[in-house]
Fold this sequence. Notes:
Layout (H helix, E strand, L loop, with lengths): L1 H21 L5 E2 L2 E2 L4 H11 L4 H16 L9 H30 L13 H10 L3 E3 L5 E3 L1 H14 L9 H24 L1 H7 L4
Antiparallel strand pairs: 1-2, 3-4
Helix pairs in contact: 1-3, 1-7, 1-8, 2-4, 3-4, 4-6, 5-7, 6-7
Amino acid sequence: MRKLRLTLLFALALPLFGQAAKDQDPSTSDKDYTPLTGKERAHYYLKETVASPGMYFASFGAALGEQKNNKPPEWGQGAKGYFHRVGSEFSLFAISRTINNGGSAALGYDPRYIHSGNKGFPKRFVHAIAWSFLTYDEHRHIRFDAPVVAGAYGSGMISSLWFPGRYSPMHDGVRTGNIQMGAHVAVNILKEFTPELKRMIGKK
């Protein structure tokens, strides 16, 4: 089930957010924002892809859901089928982040989540949702984050090409994009409230 897939993804990725918040660059905060340099963009891209533990956790977690549902059945079960699905999920995430980071660099947009400078749950919750679709450009103008949307739907459509022939980029690819955008919003909400979540579970 799709719900199981997302639940596993978040459950496996959540422990990583505490460390991410601890190491958070203050320039990703709305109160103390500075744009990325070219070198910082390259470093951020690497941290978001091959050097990201979260992406590996998410790939293995999402593949568990697909394995349980035997989706697609043509890939079979067992270790071979599972690692086929892991590779598919990892490629999906890598393509999404490559499109996002590449598009952001071309447009001068910031690919990072911009934390709220507000206090109180309602404002920060709304901010996390809104800034899943918004970002700053290099002049700190607020822009619609077209690269993140292109990454979600572009990777979904591309990923359908290595699935069995009955999968359609316009149907299954768009559905995968919808799921990725939903996950993107949920992850940003978790990022926004990571300090509070850490305190709730007794972490310093």
